[in-house]
């Protein structure tokens, strides 16, 4: 008896190999949780991994528990504990997303305050960044987006659950975040001052004074307002604000021993050579003059019009005037 080999035979062999390979990988996945058949066994395994700092393994086990027993008695507990596992594993985005999910699914759970706290803590740690472990970075000069999110999350926790055991720590972190947010505004105001954008600098200083009372940055905000007013020639406002600075912050660095305001004499003013050589040559400092101490009674444009009118009248003859310029 002879067999005829058809072109379909190699295709069947390949399909059989693929199917066996899929079964092999499926067995490997099952081996990871071999011997676990009940919901409690999955939960005990995840908890042991969490306590032994095997956070990657704990995350996988919590996910397997929820996929196999989505409505079990350990499902909600697994969902809140996986938030901590993500946080300890360094995945702040996943921790925040898991906390949001728990808040949405279990608004009446006894651990809901912990979910709010972990959501704020995830943003708090994410705002500090990975490089802070190795390189000292001034947090007040970084983008305040995450810090603002963390502040809002902690604020929501205190508003909803003021007696929570996590309230004290959240309140302390909010003070730190608020000081940083105020200092960030001062950095922006100084940036505007150095570039002679005095109105923008004034607005930032006013914002700090109005919205961040009690922070160390308020004194700097008042000093920025004084300098902005001086630069714009608004001396009455500058004197009033300076009196406020002397009264409330007499030891501020912008005041000398006699209480006089020390205005900065250098601002950023990069020359063309400095710009094209990326700071290797040239200078980026200038000494801009202060605004005039007294403003003219009329605007500059009106002064030009008046001077032109006087010049024309002085140069015209009597005949030109009485004939309205028809005869000279």
H-E order: HHHHHHHHHHHEHEHH
How many strand units? 2
Low-confidence stretches: 1-7, 19-28, 292-305
Shape, per Cα inertia axes: elongated
Q: What is the alpha-carbon Rg in Å?
A: 35 Å
Report the total helices. 14
Spatial sequence of strands, sheet with the most strands: 1-2
Description:
This protein is an all-alpha fold and 328 residues long. It is built from 14 helices and 2 strands, in the order αααααααααααβαβαα. A two-stranded antiparallel ribbon has the order 1-2. The longest helix has 28 residues.
Features of the shown structure:
two-stranded antiparallel ribbon; single chain; mainly alpha; 328 residues; disordered N terminus; 64% helix; 1% strand; elongated
Summarize this, please?
The chain is an all-alpha fold and 328 residues long. The chain contains 14 helices and two strands, in the order αααααααααααβαβαα.
Q: What's the layout of helices and strands?
A:
Layout: H1 8-32, H2 39-51, H3 55-68, H4 75-88, H5 92-105, H6 112-128, H7 145-160, H8 167-194, H9 198-211, H10 217-232, H11 235-248, E1 267-268, H12 272-276, E2 285-286, H13 300-315, H14 318-322
Antiparallel strand pairs: 1-2
Helix pairs in contact: 2-3, 3-4, 4-5, 4-6, 5-6, 6-7, 7-8, 8-9, 8-10, 9-10, 10-11
């Amino acid at each position: 008896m002879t067999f005829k080999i058809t072109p379909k035979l190699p295709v069947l062999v390949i399909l059989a190999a693929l199917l066996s390979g899929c079964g092999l990988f499926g067995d490997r996945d099952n081996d990871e949780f071999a011997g676990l058949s009940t919901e409690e066994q999955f939960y005990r395994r995840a908890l042991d991994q969490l306590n032994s700092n095997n956070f990657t393994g704990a995350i996988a086990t919590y996910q397997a528990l929820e996929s196999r027993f989505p409505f079990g008695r350990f499902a909600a507990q697994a969902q809140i504990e996986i938030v901590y596992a993500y946080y300890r594993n360094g995945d702040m985005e996943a921790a925040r997303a898991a906390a949001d999910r728990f808040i949405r699914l279990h608004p009446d759970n006894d651990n809901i305050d912990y979910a709010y706290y972990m959501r704020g803590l995830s943003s708090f740690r994410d705002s500090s960044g990975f490089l802070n472990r190795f390189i000292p970075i001034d947090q007040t000069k970084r983008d305040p987006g995450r810090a603002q999110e963390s502040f809002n999350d902690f604020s929501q926790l205190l508003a909803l659950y003021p007696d929570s055991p996590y309230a004290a720590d959240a309140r302390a972190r909010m003070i730190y975040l608020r000081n940083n947010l105020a200092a960030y505004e001062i950095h922006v105001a100084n940036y505007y001052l150095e570039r002679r954008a005095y109105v923008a600098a004034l607005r930032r200083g006013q914002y700090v004074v109005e919205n961040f009372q009690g922070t160390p940055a308020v004194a700097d905000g008042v000093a920025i307002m004084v300098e902005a007013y001086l630069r714009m020639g608004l001396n009455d406002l500058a004197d009033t604000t300076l009196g406020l600075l002397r009264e409330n912050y007499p030891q501020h660095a912008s005041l000398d021993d006699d209480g006089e305001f020390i205005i900065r004499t250098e601002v950023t003013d990069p020359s063309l050579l400095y710009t094209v050589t990326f700071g290797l040559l040239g200078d980026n400092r200038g000494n801009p003059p202060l605004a005039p101490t007294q403003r003219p009674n009329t605007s500059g444009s009106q002064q030009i019009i008046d001077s032109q009118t006087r010049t024309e009248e002085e140069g015209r003859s009597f005949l030109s005037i009485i004939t309205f310029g028809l005869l000279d």
